[in-house]
Amino acid sequence: MKKTSPAHTVTLGLIQTACSPDPRENTETTLAAARRAARSGAQIICTQELYRSQYFCQSEDARHFALAEPIPGPSTEVWQRLARQLRVVVVASLFERRAPGLYHNTAVVVDADGACLGCYRKMHIPDDPLYYEKYYFTPGDLGYRAWKTRYGKIGVLICWDQWYPEAARLTALQGAEILFYPTAIGWHPAEKAAVGRQQHEAWETIQRAHAIANGCYVAAVNRVGHERPAGGDGLEFWGQSFVAGPDGAVLARAAVDKPENLLVTVDLARLDEIRTAWPFLRDRRIDSYGPITQRFGEGA
């Protein structure tokens, strides 16, 4: 007999925008989009990664450290006011200045009463062509976390974290029902024709796999636009923010080339049904996973 549970629905609002060189303009654009999402019924709102600026990690330039701010700080306070006024939960991605010379790529979680529940600092920091994040960001030191909000228990991971099943698993084991991934990912224009489709499909597929393996919802929030803050060909961000259900199905997907509020209503009661039918958490062999802490196999 199919197991059923009373519905427990919540509406997610993913804010996909294009960014200009002006942080003030980007902030106002994102706040206006968040207000529209709330008016349309969104209860948990998530920004894209580093929404206040263009993706500055395309080069190593010390001037960009001026974009960072303390937490709590001006942006945190703005989101707390908005959350309190609109009675929404907010996940906001910020460039954190923790101390002189110490910076993080951080997401702030604000509850629907305006209380700041805490932060997640990006754990996996890439260093690839046009993604020179190791120059700017210290790896996170707060671990993998989940927060009980007014509308459900959520976990947050950031962009490069989305490629690591360990990060998704450990966040889900904290009780997260929804994994949010603020993201900034796109194509190198010269590679797009040859491998662009495969790159996008890999990105979406691995996150859908996280949803399946952990029996939870996954919400990935990307930006759009072709940004060249360092000159050259720049990056063409592929948008396509999406929400996947605990069975891995894509419930909704945003446009590839335009700003969009993606609103998706999910039923948290489905998690019990899916995890009972596919008991991956029950059947984990936790006694056999010790080698996961090794970089690679002994003697290999």
Overall description:
The protein has 300 residues and is of the alpha+beta class. The chain has a single domain (9-288), classed as Nitrilase/N-carbamoyl-D-aminoacid amidohydrolase. The chain has helices at residues 23-39, 74-86, 165-172, 189-214, 270-277; strands spanning 9-16, 44-47, 89-99, 102-110, 116-121, 127-128, 131-132, 146-149, 152-156, 178-182, 186-187, 217-221, 224-227, 235-238, 242-244, 250-253, 260-267. The strands form four sheets. Strands 5-4-3-2-1-17 form a six-stranded mixed sheet. Strand 4 and strand 5 (116-121) form a beta hairpin. The longest helix is centred in the last third of the chain and has 26 residues, at 189-214. The chain is globular. The model has no long low-confidence stretch (mean pLDDT 97).
Brief account:
This protein has helices at residues 23-39, 74-86, 165-172, 189-214, 270-277; strands spanning 9-16, 44-47, 89-99, 102-110, 116-121, 127-128, 131-132, 146-149, 152-156, 178-182, 186-187, 217-221, 224-227, 235-238, 242-244, 250-253, 260-267. With 300 residues, the protein is an alpha+beta fold.
Offer a few descriptive terms.
single chain, 300 residues, alpha+beta, Nitrilase/N-carbamoyl-D-aminoacid amidohydrolase, 6-stranded mixed β-sheet, 17 strands, globular
Q: Topology of this structure?
A:
Layout (H helix, E strand, L loop, with lengths): L8 E8 L6 H17 L4 E4 L26 H13 L2 E11 L2 E9 L5 E6 L5 E2 L2 E2 L13 E4 L2 E5 L8 H8 L5 E5 L3 E2 L1 H26 L2 E5 L2 E4 L7 E4 L3 E3 L5 E4 L6 E8 L2 H8 L23
Parallel strand pairs: 1-2, 2-3, 9-10, 10-12
Antiparallel strand pairs: 1-17, 3-4, 4-5, 6-7, 8-9, 11-14, 12-15, 13-14, 15-16
Helix pairs in contact: 3-4
